[in-house]
Amino acid sequence: MSTSSLRRQMKNIVHNYSEAEIKVREATSNDPWGPSSSLMSEIADLTYNVVAFSEIMSMIWKRLNDHGKNWRHVYKAMTLMEYLIKTGSERVSQQCKENMYAVQTLKDFQYVDRDGKDQ
């Protein structure tokens, strides 16, 4: 088990995250690979539960507001959001429309690492 996944598990316990929040955190982690289709499918199914939907969307909006070295949170949150719009509850697309300003602010998002590489 990597130190990042161990750290993530500790945060999940300390912050008492729900199952839905933990799944979103896993799907939008800083790990150098994308979220699995099976995990995104599980999250999409959870969007039909009113409580889980609220938790999922709250975590996605939080991830979309990350900066700098957490650029993967932003990228993966956008990937997950696109998947949920297509396969999740209709409420996902409704909430995205209502919060379009938050998505539009990301059109200029950019992260350049310390070596000058645009991520």
Q: Could you explain how this protein is built, in words?
A:
The chain contains seven helices and no strands. The chain is mainly α and 119 residues long. It has one domain: Serine Threonine Protein Phosphatase 5, Tetratricopeptide repeat (Alpha Horseshoe), CATH 1.25.40.90. Its main location: cytoplasm. InterPro entries: ENTH, ENTH_VHS. Belongs to the epsin family. It holds the Pfam family ENTH.
Summarize the structure.
With 119 residues, this protein is an all-alpha fold.
Please give the CATH class.
Answer: Mainly Alpha
Which term fits the overall shape?
globular
Order of helices and strands: HHHHHHH
As a percent range, the share of helical residues equals 55-70%
Quantity of strands, as a count? 0
* % residues in beta strands: under 5%
Distance between the termini: 26 Å
Number of domains: 1
Structural class: mainly alpha
Biggest sheet layout:
none
**Discrete helix count:** 7
Topology:
Layout: H1 3-14, H2 19-27, H3 37-46, H4 50-64, H5 71-87, H6 90-98, H7 100-104
Helix pairs in contact: 2-3, 2-4, 3-5, 4-5, 5-6
